[in-house]
Amino acid sequence: MKSTATRRAASGERPPATQLEHIAEELRCYDEHLRDVRGLAAGTRKGRLRVVGLLLQEKFKGRAIEIGKLRPDDIRQFLAAQLSARRSSSHASHLAATLRSYLRYRTICGDQVDKLAAVISNPVHWKLASLPRALKPEEVERLLNSFMAARRWPKRGYAIVRCALDMGLRSGEIAHLMLDDIDWRVGTVIIRGTKSLRQDIMPLPIETGQALADYLQYERSATSNPAIFVRQKEGQDHPITSMAIQKVIKRACRRIGLPHSSAHALRHTLACRLVENGSSLKEVADVLRHRSLNSTLIYAKLDTPKLSTVALPWPGSKS
C-alpha cells in the first residue's frame, strides 16, 4: 500500500501548508536579516531565498530545522545536485555565495557551522575575464527606430528603453519611477529602488525627458496611481514590475534580431559609450551608481588608447 507522501508525489499534489510553515518562517526571518542587516535589494534576496528554500525543503521537510545536525556531505550532495542541473561558473558562484550567506546568518542564531562552510569551495571564475556585452551604434539606432512600427504601447516601450540607454537605469529602478521624482523645470530625476537602497538625483537627458513626456501625454491611462509606468490588473492600475520592464526590452531586442536582449546590455552600452568618449572610470561609476569602483573596472578593458600606453612589447618583436 502506497504511503500518503508517495501518492502526493505521484499525483503532483503539494504537501499540506502546515508541513512547510516552519520553512516559510525560517525564510521570512532570513529575508529580514538580508534586508535590514545586509541591505540587499529585493531581487538579490529573492535569488538567495530560492536556493536556501530548496536546501531546507530537501533536508528539513518533515522535521524541525536544526542546521547543527547537517553534515558536510549534506552540503556537498546539495551542491552536486544543483550543479548537475545547471553547470556554469556563474551559477556555482551564486550557490556558493548564497550558502555562505545563510550559514553566516545561522552563526548569528547560535549554530556551529564551521565544518559546513569549509566544504563550500570557490568555483574557478576569472574576474574581469570577459568583455561587457554592449550594443553597437547601428544596433542602438535600429532598436530605437523599431518602436515606430510597434503594435502595442510604442511610446511606453520607447521611453523605457531610453531610460536604460541614456541613464543606465536598472529594470527595478525604471519600475520605481514616480511622477513626483521628475523635476521638469530643473531637469533632474530621483532614482529609487537601487541595489544600495539609497536615493540618487541624476540629470534628465533631453531625449529621455521628451520620450517620457510623450508617453505620459499620449499613452498613459488617466489614473491616480503615482507610478510613471502603470499596468491594469483586475480592473485596477498598478505600478509596472521590474520583470515587465525586462520583458519590454527583451521583446524589442528580439524583434529586430539583437543577440543581447536585456536591460543590463543597455546599461553596458551607456558605460561603453562614456569610456569611448573619454570619461574616466570614476565618472562611469558615478553614472552607473556603483558602490565600489571595482565594479567599474571591467570597462577599463575598452579604453584602447590608454591600454596601448601600458602594453608590454611582444617577445621577439622589434618594438
Describe the overall structure:
By secondary structure, the chain is mainly alpha-helical. It has 14 helices and five strands. It has two domains: 14-118, DNA polymerase, domain 1, CATH 1.10.150; 137-304, Intergrase catalytic core (hpI Integrase, Chain A), CATH 1.10.443. 54% of the residues lie in helices and 6% in strands. α8 (154-167) packs antiparallel against α10 (206-218) and α12 (263-276) runs antiparallel to α13 (281-288). Mean pLDDT is 80; it is low at 1-19 and 301-312. The radius of gyration is 24 Å and the shape is elongated.
Which helices and strands, and how do they pair?
Elements: H1 4-11, H2 17-37, H3 42-60, H4 72-85, H5 89-108, H6 114-118, H7 137-145, H8 154-167, H9 171-175, E1 182-183, E2 188-191, E3 200-203, H10 206-218, E4 230-233, E5 236-239, H11 242-255, H12 263-276, H13 281-288, H14 304-310
Antiparallel strand pairs: 1-2, 2-3, 4-5
Helix pairs in contact: 2-3, 3-5, 8-10, 8-12, 12-13
